[in-house]
Amino acid sequence: MDSKLKAEQDKFSPNEDDVKVQDYINDKGTEFCPSCGQQIVPLLSQEDLVVTRLVGITNEPKSRICMDSFGLLNIKVPNWARNQADCPYLFQLYETHYTNAIEEFEDLDDKELREKIKNNVGPREALNEEWARLSPQYNGEYPSSTVTVKHCWLRPSSFNSLSDKEDTNYLKQKYPNGVCVTFVNELFAQAYNEDLDDIWELSYNPLSDHVHFDPLGLLLTSVQELINDVLSLTVQTIEHGIGQTFVDPETLNLDAYRQIESVPGGIYEAKPKSGKGLGESFYQAKTATLSGEVLPFFQNLQSLGQLVSGSLPSLFGGAIDQGGGTASEYSMSRTQALQRLQNTWKMFTLWWKNIFGKAVPAYLKEIHEDEREVERSKDGNFINVFIRRAELDGKIGKVELEANENLPIAWNQQRDLIMQLLQTGIPEVLQIVGSPENLPVVREALGLDNFYVPGADDVEKVQDDIKQLLNSEPIPTIMPMQPGQPQQMGEGPSVEPDELYDNPEIGFEVVRSWVISEAGRMAKIDNDKGYKNVLLYGQKLKQLIPPPQPPPPTPQRRERPRPGSPVSGVNNAPTIQ
């Protein structure tokens, strides 16, 4: 027996019906579909397989712009300056350990300079401002190892103070944008070209005509002093509440009385004077009593302090003094209290906006290589954001930033706002609140961690599927065709949605939101296969959404014929004469 036939008999025993078919397949090299038995022509393609492996570890610090805020104890500007452009100089002073100064400034790394710094630490002349900057925990003892670092920013116009014109021109040519000079205890440390406006941003009080202005809490000083006096007077009155008693030594033996322990209900020997009662030998001085006007005055001081500071009770849920206590009155009182803080909030928003307007160009100047940031999106996914140095070339014409004019709202305000939206009953508003992206916000606003929100788990399930889809590629599949047509190869998602348990409507909305989000747009550029995998997953969900139900038929009203109408055959019958 032929060996091939024997192999077929061993494989498909006991009969030999399929031996010829297998022999034809082996000789011709023809391939058939294992499911339908139709002849197929394989498509051969060559693709590069990328295997991810660790090739090395780099430890490079990311470019960052450090932003610090300082007060007038550390900053010196002219008191006559009306704005920042009017300041010809700006000085920054702070104290640090002398070893930190030597490490930071290379010009001080010299033996003679080191000795000068070591010998010049500790108490020096004009230490009043240094005492104010240092921590009060030293309890009056001045630290013996600190030095004062002084950074001086000068504008090019400051060079005109020199008497020699040549020196002025030389400095303007060497430092065209201005100069930053650093001193450590009056010892020169460094100097380099730098613009004052690129580094500093001064805040302005809208009620002032100059940079220097009264502190925001100045009005509270007098109120706080009065409160301290009232509290001190109250404590002294309580301490001296027991008056002094004067006694005739002939009536009571004071030496013997001092030797006896004072016990409740004790009996002591006392001899009154002849013809007089025992009480006439004792006199008790009248003690001071707290006036009844102190407590109302103290409460009035608290109201005055809230008034001058703008920290009214309505901000933190306190009761209002006047009115019926209705919800609308509390809302109006809170709005008025927040309005008191608008000037201060406006000052900080403008200041913060200008700071970022300078931080962005400074960051572009400091970045040297491509960087990658790992951020977390709203749906909880971690995405890679690439900052490419090649895309940052060119010049910046103008930077415009928007500052939020509204004050931040608290958690209870968010909860009240969401509850009001739910009570409106408007379909469009309810659709916005019930969107998949807002379901976690609704749960957080309700304040119930174990409160189940329908659809929240579906959102998390689809988000987990998206993470798996991004880490894989589409898989080849056979496209369903009509009988008699050749089979075609297609692609499907590596993670199939569950037709029985998944909610396709919520899942498709989550995928759609991800595709148009920043994470989706970035994945389209950096991970095209994973992005296509998510799109195929969304198409599967779209196919699972049931078609909309047709509206129910509108019932037609059938009118009853009126007497004498054409449909009434009795009254309209022809008359026979």
How would you characterize this protein structure?
With 577 residues, the protein is of the alpha+beta class. Among the domains are: 3-40, no CATH class; 75-199, no CATH class; 300-340, no CATH class; 342-392, no CATH class; 454-481 and 488-546, no CATH class. 38% of the residues lie in helices and 11% in strands. It contains 19 helices and 13 strands. It has helices at residues 3-12, 19-28, 98-104, 111-119, 128-133, 165-174, 196-199, 219-239, 254-258, 294-309, 327-340, 342-366, 411-424, 427-433, 439-446, 456-470, 504-516, 518-526, 528-544, and strands spanning 31-32, 39-40, 75-76, 89-97, 146-154, 179-184, 187-193, 245-247, 282-284, 371-376, 382-387, 475-479, 488-492. Strands 3-4-5-6-7 form a five-stranded antiparallel β-sheet. Strands 1-2 form a two-stranded antiparallel ribbon. It has a two-stranded antiparallel sheet with strand order 8-9. A hairpin with a 6-residue loop joins strand 1 and strand 2 (39-40). The protein is extended. Residues 567-577 have low confidence and may be disordered.
